[in-house]
Every structure is written in C-alpha cells, then in structure tokens.
Amino acid sequence: MRGIPIVVIALVLAAMTASGQSPQQASQAKPAAPQKTATPPPAAQQSSVPTPPDYVIGPDDQLSIVFWIEPKMSAESVVVRSDGKISLPLINDVQAAGLTPDQLRERLMQAASKYIEDTTVTVIVRQINSRRVFITGQIARPGAYPLTNSMTVLQLIAVAGGLGEWADQSNITVMRTESGRPVTYRFNYREVVQRKNLKQNIELKPGDTVIVP
User: Fold this and answer.
1) Which site from 10, 36, 94, 105 is most exposed, i.e. has the minimal number of CB atoms within 10 Å?
2) Residue 144 is part of which domain span?
3) What CATH code is carried by the domain that includes residue 123?
4) Are residues 67 and 117 in contact, defined by beta-carbon separation less than 8 angstroms?
C-alpha cells in the first residue's frame, strides 16, 4: 500500500462498508449478464415488397413463410408453382395462388393446427412475378414488364423505350381477357399526347398485351 495516502484508503473502505460488501466480495463481484431479447427468425427480419391494394398471390411469386413457434416449419424462400401451390415442411402442398397474403396466413394456421397449437404465421411477399403486362410490335424494347403499381398504356410505352420510327401511332391496341373472353381497347397515341380523349389511356391489368402496329 506504499504511496497511497491513508485518507484515500479510508474512503475506499468506508464506501465498501456502506454497500455491505467486504473487500474480497467486491473483488469477486461479476458484472450482470446482459438481458437477452427475443429475436425473430431471419426471414421475418427482412421487409416485404410493396403490394398493390388488389394484390393476390400468383404463380412465380416468391414468398417467405414464418412459423414463430416451430421455425423448422418455416420457409425463407418459396416460389409459387405453376399449379398455384407451395410446399412446406410437414404441411406439404398448400394452395396459395388466388389468395391474399392474409388469406394464405389463415389457411396455413388452419393446416398447422393439426400438428401444433397456438401458432403464429407470417406471410411475407418477397417478389411479385405473377403481375406482368406485355408490349410488342414497333416499340424500342418489347417484352414483359412487372405490374407492381398502377400503370397506364402511355406509361408502359414510356417504360418500354417509346414507339418505333415506323409505328402506327393512331392504331395501338390493348388486348385483355375479361370473364374468360378476349376484348380489345383502342389507343391513339397522337390524341393522348395532345391531351385529347384521355379516357382511352386506360389503367392496365395483369396479363394485358399492348400491340403497336
């Protein structure tokens, strides 16, 4: 204890006495272990993609299914098959296409109730591939384009790079299937860009095909 003033030693001893600890107890005291917090499964920590208000699950959509009580039943990445079903451990095949994420969650909870009780299921939409529109003909970049938000005919033409040099701007056609029957809508590009007859610039629906002659 050489070199340490007696006054300092006395103050340290007094503090330990007031706390009810001996010098030996104070030296052996261990810091409190940090409190553990519940961590959700990895799939649940990732955010979902924005979904349109009328979104229903379709073929090729990518989902994550999280069972909070039984993580072994979860699937971090599952793709909806062409028959509209997904496969999960224990539950096997479940119909997903045509349902909203909430409706699929309810169906999964019902299917899982045969094996576990009071389970909580989360359905996360990772990628939407089922909602697409198509454009072909005299366009810079013909092909399929995702329809994750609202999109009009004019907007699709812009996304596809614009009309080709020899495009017939007055006779563009939108082909659609309604109630199982094909229907067509005429779109006059010249009129729309001149702010005439704007009603023909309709909002596209999944599966629509725009033909630019």
Assistant:
1) 36
2) 132-212
3) 3.30.1950.10
4) no
